[in-house]
Specification:
The structure is a homotetramer of 310-residue chains. Chain A is built from 14 helices and twelve strands. With 310 residues, chain A is an alpha+beta fold. Chain A folds into two domains: 3-60 and 199-300, 3-Layer(aba) Sandwich (Beta-lactamase); 63-196, DD-peptidase/beta-lactamase superfamily (Beta-lactamase), CATH 3.40.710.10. In chain A, a hairpin with a 4-residue loop joins strand 9 and strand 10. In chain A, helix 5 packs across helix 8 (164-175) and helix 8 (164-175) packs across helix 9 (183-194). Chains A and D meet through helix 4 and helix 8 of A and helix 4 and helix 8 of D. Chains A, B, C, D: GO terms for molecular function: glutaminase activity. Chains A, B, C, D: This is Glutaminase.
């Protein structure tokens, strides 16, 4: 089946699902998003791009930004990053602080909040928060080849006002000496990076470097093939918090979810896929987004756990 | 480079490594194994088999048996198994009991000891321990097409005598009602299954069904393609305890390690690889085995996180 | 008010309480106890004994036996015991296994199950389980000056059949080398010791040595004054599992509760008090028993946190 | 032996001890305190006051201030406080955040940092931080009948600069809605309250209301007898973090320690005792202070676990 038909089919089916999960409502600008929304976009290795549903509506990428923050942090300090953040699944929720106490301020991986804060701290070194946010934005715009991507300032402000849990994490990590920039600067940068708004199409475009061994069609080499592979590995084992195992089991693709309802998934050598549906499942991942990716992966035989059939 | 040369190169290099990790010594029959041993075997999708080093010496497969036990348990009760054991990385050591308390007797995944005990319990239903062990043995022999595979009774007996931690786990799970057979029968079967002795060659042969979408060359269809894919996914996220993320990061293949120093790794559609070197790293996985698999995966471009290049 | 009137008043009031907690029903012989039962007995320092309600009905003392087991273990190995068991409140439930993992098999205190198993192990050294049980029974009979105290064999058998959680604890401790006798012997002795049946009167009599600086009216010196004081201290901080703080706050006396609904409380230099009411509160301590002791302590001004008014 | 001789003896002995523990050095103004210091003061129920050693040198009372903050918070909201903070020993270190995650922002007791922050939040309601600090200071001055007691602003400022762990706790509690005032105001007040400097003499005087059933000789009724008794109970079970059991076992008196090396201990109806020696043991409590109180308690027979001998 051609990609367009597959995506259209999935979008049509998703429109009829009644159990759509629960929209995050810890801040008003997320809580007011229409749960009926569903979008999907797929960019293939040969350069085509396919969309269905609300694929051109921007949404808050939230934790999906952790993929870009990790990429930038690795670009800045290379593998030295791994002395400050682990790469193991955490076995616990996205904002858990328990593991940090036992492991003395070293977050388990860069895709839980604690680990992402360390990446932001690395990225921030030598910059003002404003510059750091500008750099992330330029990076993402370059990857997506689209200068219209912006930070949703209302979301950023709300995050900041409600961000006590992240403030706790940042102060806690700082108490172990594993943040080097001022806590407020790290938090401010982090909240803005999470508040970047992108559409499925923009996100799928931005994710192409992970499918293509580190090279982005528009922007050139972003990371080495080895680093692209490794980021994919971390997305697979850690990209969905304490539901990462289930996502691997059902979808079989590296992926990173965000509380705004988006998921970016990567089929190495084949496709970069972005889905969006604001309702979340119990683990805080997009309910229909996961379902849709399961469909895509099965229909195209793209699970990385299936025998290769290039 | 031809497979034979690659394996020979790796085996030669491994011979010279001085930091070989620490041989498990909690029972004498494991502790007396020569740390200088190293073997590797690779069976390809097109049916060839390649070996180097001590690839024909049998060793105690230990936790690698959990892959076979999971396959048998799924064969017996299907996806109903997942109400009794999870499929998430545990974020903790192989024999941790902490997670069980919080999650009320449901082990995180089938590849930690607690989860493997539940698989054994499932497999045991309606059988005597002797029959159950016989069935596992026949299963493995069929997969490897080799009737010489046996249980090392000395190892099994020692495990039983020293198995207080596993007895604790089994009783604990039983206290939540998540074991249905007598605790002693489950433990007895489990200790024997862990004490199966296999060579790298036998193990690589036995693992072929996971590379080939569920079909074993000699034994026919073992599991459906979907199930093979899913077992691979669990091996990737949970196969190396609290070093699973690191193994995915470095090697990029589904794999399962055992405290005897063996690792079985699967490159879907490409190869089934078994390595053995008795020295373990800090997380209890074969130190040289991991290194060797990293070499194989990089040399052949077989990481599942690399772009497909069939 | 004379003691008899006070106790009669309390017993009368307790008869009318409707929210009596929940009778433990994990074994049938406990579950079948009439929740309407309430008994209380008070032995004073000057040798008088006062009772009300069902004070002469025997009940299963369960964890109250841990006080006697600790006394015997200290008698056997002295302060060397403290290298094998701590004396800190655990902050967790009576049968938690989590703490044991982090603290490598050293139970937090002798009044959680894990710690009591270590005391039983100490007491068992050089004896058969039968002898050890006989010794505990003789000890308790001597303290209470009553040879009619027996083990309820039905309870002991049921405990053994359902004792998976305790078997888990014992095996777990054993795996760290902190049990020296065979696991089954320790468990068997432990289950029998918990199954001792005593009336409130017998229990209050048995507890007199703790109120009298270590000397029991009938049996002579049991422990030194320092040891009596220290056992009292542990009863205060650890005697009610994760409700020990609340018991100290409300009652203000060293006390030890059992899942059979009994509590033994000690007012040093003043009284030994036993209450029994089978319904338990959420933390597993007798609901009316706690209430009754709060009344006694307040009425007599016996809280150890009140200014001394001898 | 007269009190003066006893204290002089102890002070003399303490001067010769070589293993004095480790002075807290997380802020310079604490780290620079001379480890040779030792002071002790004892106020008796009949109104006399006895001192030895450096009993008139002011030191940073730190966590001992939690006793006064609890008293003030109870004065403000009464037993409603107990819906926001527990009264159970925590079983963990003074600044642990783990328990807070599991128990959703309700600190275990008012004597760990998290619980003290809640007390400060209660006390702060309707005040500016400056007013709240003023009120605490006036309260303590009244209790000690000494207007020279001040906040050490250097310590307060250093605490604030290094207070990442407390900032983490405060933000974390706030994320569960269990702080109502601005996080920064709570922290500012808390750091100043901890930075109050008092001598042993002043501290022993201030603690008299807890020995005297709630009435302070100079200041009149502070709390009801019931509340005094209950504060004593919490000091006994929770006053020394995860060494509270050991302090009860060895000393047998309600007490509260501070990282500045001070301990306030209460013998109800008999004495209020303050000791100071800056070196801390592994659990963060004054090493010589604990030793000295063990001596006092044993010499005077004041343990609350000993038979009453008024």
């Amino acid at each position: 089946m051609p990609y367009d038909d597959l995506l259209a089919d999935i979008a049509a089916d998703m429109r009829t699902v009644t159990d759509r999960g629960r929209v995050a409502d810890y801040i008003p600008s997320l809580g007011s998003v229409d749960p009926a929304r569903f979008g999907i976009a797929l960019c293939t290795a040969d350069g085509s791009c396919h969309v269905a549903g609300d694929a051109d509506l921007p949404f808050s990428i939230q934790s999906i930004s952790k993929v870009f923050a990790l990429t930038l942090a690795l670009g800045k300090v290379g593998d030295a990053l791994w002395s400050r953040v682990g790469r193991e699944p955490s076995g616990s929720a996205f904002n858990s602080i328990v593991q940090l106490e036992r492991e003395e301020g070293i977050p388990r991986n860069p895709f839980i909040n604690a680990g992402a804060l360390v990446c932001t701290d690395v990225h921030l070194a030598g910059h003002s928060p404003r510059e750091a946010i500008g750099e992330i934005l330029r990076f993402v715009r370059g990857l997506a080849d689209d200068n219209d991507i912006v930070v949703d300032e209302t979301v950023a402000r709300s995050e900041q006002e409600q961000g006590f849990r992240n403030a706790a994490l940042a102060n806690y990590i700082r108490s172990f000496g594993n943040l080097q920039q001022p806590v407020d600067a790290v938090l401010g940068t982090y909240f803005h990076q999470c508040a970047i708004a992108m559409s499925c199409r923009q996100l799928a475009l931005a994710g192409r470097y992970l499918m293509l061994g580190g090279r982005s069609p528009g922007a050139g080499r972003i990371v080495t093939p080895q680093r692209a592979r490794r980021i994919n590995a971390i997305m697979l084992t850690c990209g969905h918090y304490d539901a990462s195992g289930d996502f691997a089991f059902r979808v079989g693709l590296p992926g990173k979810s965000g509380v705004g309802g988006g998921i970016l998934a990567v089929a190495p050598g084949r496709g970069s896929i972005a889905v969006w549906s604001p309702g979340l499942n119990a683990q805080g991942n997009s309910q229909l987004g996961t379902l849709a990716l399961e469909r895509v992966s099965a229909a195209l035989g793209w699970s990385i756990f299936d025998p290769v059939t290039a």
